[in-house]
Amino acid sequence: MTLLLAPALLLAMLAVLGAGLLLFGTICRRITVTGHLWTIIWTQSCLLIVRWLGWWERRRLERDTRDAQDIQSELLRHWLRRNPIAECECGPDEQNSKSNRALFRSTYPLTRVTDYQPPGTCCAVEAAEQGMKKPWKLLVSRRCSGQKVIFPIMHDALRNYVQGIAVSFDASLCTSRETCRRQKACRFSYTHSCPPTHSGIPIAPDVNPGFFNKLLSYGLSTPMAGQGLPAGPDACYIHLLFALSQRALVRLEAPGTAQLHNAFLLLRTRWQALVEDIDKGLICMALGLPAAVRRKLEDALTPDLKRADEIRHEVEEGFEGIARRLWPDLQMVIGKDAGPNDPHSDALRNCYCKGVALYSPIYTTGQGLIGINLWPRCPEASYVLVPRSLLFEFILEENAGDNEPETLSIEELEQGGCYELVVSSSAGIYRCRTGDICEVKKFYNQSPVVRLKYRLDQELSLRGERTSEAQLYQALRCAARHWRGSELVEYCGTESRLLGNAAGASDAHYVVFVELHGMQNLTEAHKNKLDQYLQEDSVTYRSLRNKGSVGAARVIVVYVGTFEALRDSVIGLSAPNTNPMSGHIMRGQDQVEFLLQRCIT
Questions:
Q1: The pLDDT value given to residue 3
Q2: Are residues 475 and 347 in the same domain?
Q3: CA spacing 20 to 30 A to 188: which of 32, 129, 412, 547?
Q4: Is residue 325 domain-shared with residue 189, that is, in the same domain?
Q5: 317 in a domain, yes or no?
Q6: Burial class (CB in 10 A: 0-12, 13-18, 19+), 272
Q7: Residue 533 lies in a domain
Q8: Is the pLDDT of residue 28 over 50?
Q9: How many separate domains does the chain show?
Q10: For position 519, what pLDDT does the model report?
């Protein structure tokens, strides 16, 4: 915290160190001076600050994971003391930890997200009005049920988010010496506009401490004038334009994999305009940019015919592995993974960013920070649970369907076991079932390392059969291979009963809305491939189809940008959706009607 309390003094000290590092690197020819001297010194100084903070928070995480069980017991005692009924029975030492857990479970029943979201209200705003501690921020997101959910983020939780961001950023730097030397990166970051609550609490779609963006803003390819643009295609175009103009990028960053995928889709459709802008050093007039912003951006864009020809050549070679070909020094692509059945991550990993490490740095939910990924180059994202962030409980996978199942603590977990995650936070959210089923891969000291397997309630059922989100996505991927000229961008599945009259007179059936890039007029033969692969995957579903109990799965293609518009209509923010693990099974009738109004076929 000394770092945050005395920023001016520390910045002055690190500026001197940054100047020394610049001189040393220049002498050793490890850092190429290509910009203004002050900008380079500032960039190196900010990098030193973040590296120091990452080193400090990593040490703190190491200590905490060695004492994870004791820290969780202390959190438990802390929250019991906040309850006047339980305070008198709360044991003061470790010998009473087992009885404290029993007391906690009897005092607070298991809850779900919907218990904290009464229609038209927000528990955090009400708490602020009643004189309780005011939240630092309200995190707003959307569940696949179509419900808008709001979670309060308290000030004491900010430290945990700082730790998660700092440690993961430092981990990404430490994976490559070359990355540490050259810090040019492209970050697809956007601003959002939403007024605060009448109590003055900011509302945002993600929890990102702003000073991190400010510290690292000088190490980005996009000039400062382009870093504050509102979310939308124009902002994505600007980020992509300046990223393409610089061959020596080492990282691509975004809040989530969806924003990175959208950037490459934009490259596919508008690469000729991007190449022309780089060739002439001007910005496409079709972009609705303010005149002052356009002028500053064009001042920073130098005409480069050689680079334009190079980009043109690589695009004409195809888009598989194009990220590494456009940026030969690219080390890592960073964005929060949206779960195991995410088309955005698959498109990046298997096509655009093939051969480049895809790093999902942190695991968060609306309740707080859950885990940090310490292994950036591991293809399967795993997260170390952060002991001080939340109070964790676990429900055995086979008991996750019960209303009041028994819960386990960290010390009761087994390697290879699968559990539903239950969390309690300082914002007054107690024993909330996240619905995330996680597998314990191993232990990092005393703290479990988990991998998300799937979310509960993400399945379709018409006649007692169960088709999981994973089965639906696998069948959709197989079907999409037959849709030549089309790329799957986003999808969601639902049941025909939610379509009302639009379902027609046919038997009950699955309905899958898909957003495609490229050819969108699918033939009936193309669409029927989904039902074919669903039958091949599930004996039960095939039996119901043969008996005529259920109809053929129906594919509905929607316009490009429909799912982003759907999210904005629910959340009320024009900003990227950065909340991962939301699932792809839609249960909200209003949202289904929204999609039907934007269908192509």
A1: 42
A2: no
A3: 32
A4: yes
A5: yes
A6: exposed
A7: yes
A8: no
A9: 2
A10: 86
Instruction: Return all residues near 400 (Cβ < 8 A) that are at least 6 apart.
Output: 420, 437, 456
Same domain? 214 vs 351: yes
Please name the helix (run of DSSP H) or strand (run of DSSP E) that holds residue 112, with its range, or none: strand 111-112
For residue 101, give the nearest of 89, 113, 116 by alpha carbon. 89
Question: Is 540 strand, coil or helix?
Answer: helix
0.70 exceeded by pTM: yes
Q: What are phi and psi of 588, to 5 degrees?
A: -90, 120
Residue 307 lies in a domain: yes
Same domain as 354, residue 463: no
The answer to whether residues 218 and 212 touch, using CB atoms and an 8 Å cutoff, is: no
Q: How far apart are CA 250 and CA 571, in angstroms?
A: 33
Give dist(CA 533, CA 530) in Å, integer.
5
Q: Which amino acid is at 80?
A: L
C-alpha closest to that of 169 among 50, 56, 284: 50
Same domain, 463 and 575: yes
Same domain, 192 and 331: yes
Q: Do 192 and 312 have their domain in common?
A: yes
Coil, helix or strand at residue 100: helix
What φ, ψ does residue 92 adopt, rounded to 5°? -85, -10
Interval 443-476: pLDDT, tens: 999 999 999 988 888 889 998 888 988 899 999 9
How many residues does the structure list for the chain? 601
* Domain span at 481: 459-596
Burial 513-544 (b: 16+ CB within 10 A, else e): bbbbbeebebeeebbbbbbbbbbebbeebbeb
Residues 6+ apart with CB under 8 A from 102: none
* pLDDT > 90: percent of the chain: 43
Does residue 126 carry a pLDDT above 70?
no
Domain boundary among 312, 328, 360: 360
Cβ atoms of residues 468 and 459 within 8 Å: yes
Residues 385 and 440: beta-carbon distance below 8 Å:
no
Q: What's residue 567's pLDDT?
A: 74
Asked if the structure places residue 113 within a domain, the reply is: no
End residue of a domain, out of 360, 394, 416: 360
467-468 and 418-424: which strand pairing? unpaired
3-state secondary structure at position 372: strand
- DSSP 8-class letter at 197: P
Q: What angle do CA 402, 115, 424 make, to 5 degrees?
A: 80
Tens digits of residue pLDDT in 224-242: 888 888 888 899 999 999 9
C-beta neighbour count of 408 within 10 angstroms: 18
Residues 335 and 479 in one domain: no
